[in-house]
Amino acid sequence: MKDRGQNxxxxxxxxxxxxxxxxxxxxxxxxxxxxxxxxxxxxxxxxLIIAPTGSGKTECSVIPIFSLVKQSKKIGKIKVxxxxxxxxxxxxxxxxxxxxxxxxxxxxxxxHGDTSQLDRRKIxxxxxxxxxxxxxxxxILLTQKKILDALSELEWVIIDEVHELLPSERGSQLSLSLExxxxxxNTEITRVGLSATIGNEDEAAKFVVGTKRKCKIxxxxxxxxxxxxxxxxxxxISDVADSIIDYVKKLNLNSPILLFTNTRGESEFLASILKExxxxxxxxxxxxxxxQVREETETLLREGIxxxxxxxxxxxxxxxxxxxxxxxxxxxxxxxxx
Length: 338
Description:
There is one protein chain. This protein is an alpha/beta fold and 338 residues long. It folds into two domains: 218 residues, 3-Layer(aba) Sandwich (Rossmann fold), CATH 3.40.50; 93 residues, Rossmann fold (3-Layer(aba) Sandwich). Helix content is 45%, strand content 15%. The strands form two sheets. It has an eight-stranded parallel beta sheet with strand order 1-8-2-7-6-3-5-4, with helices on both faces. Strands 10-11-9-12 form a four-stranded parallel beta sheet. α14 links the parallel β10 and β11. α4 crosses α5.
């Protein structure tokens, strides 16, 4: 089911035209995972790409895919489906890859729970070449006749943050949707999975492509080092807040700090206490907040405004949030991959 062949990939030379394209887009030197993955993607092989956050996974998939779709695009047909687990990640991916799509003359849109009715009608009336969505929204799209027609010549599916979907009902739902997609299209769909953390690579590969298809597992073997410290606070959540404030002030960092909690309730309670006890800028981010509030917080992070952002998993999955020197987790993470 799997096919590694990593050493052979590493020695393959990229197409000079594509190398020039990466360079023109600002990538003067390709990362290890980009050198390994791009030749495989150009061959339209199903693949699972595993590499740390910030190593260029997104670019190593979309740039070669867009260069191929440029030759086969057709008015009214969606050629690439990009699936992420979170709306925040949808927006972040859209912001990052729009220029790559436009560079190849492709149109791109987002369709998820925050999408306005006006934009939904626009997507139905004039389908883009590339559509970014979530697993839940994909289920809805597969019930709409006009969208099914737009997806009838779909060529590529990119699944981002695969590890987040693996052990869940959402993952099972997505697997069914992908098989439905293949049954309703006139072309063979190439699937590409992206993830920074994978426990069982073989199971993850099966999740991406199914049990009867081959999947090339491409992995970045470089190692990143982190300073990890565990602190125990014997007291209430108010005492925890005091400890966090003292720790942050002692470090005196000039960049945003992410403070993760396991639940939305914890994040709101801890944020309110921190605001009462400190003059540090405190922001809040979780899935139940309005689109405007979430986007404003994400912008502050990208701009590098100092302060603490108290958040749930809504900010943990590969978002481009600029330079962050400190990440704090309140309580024990519920999964090893967290």
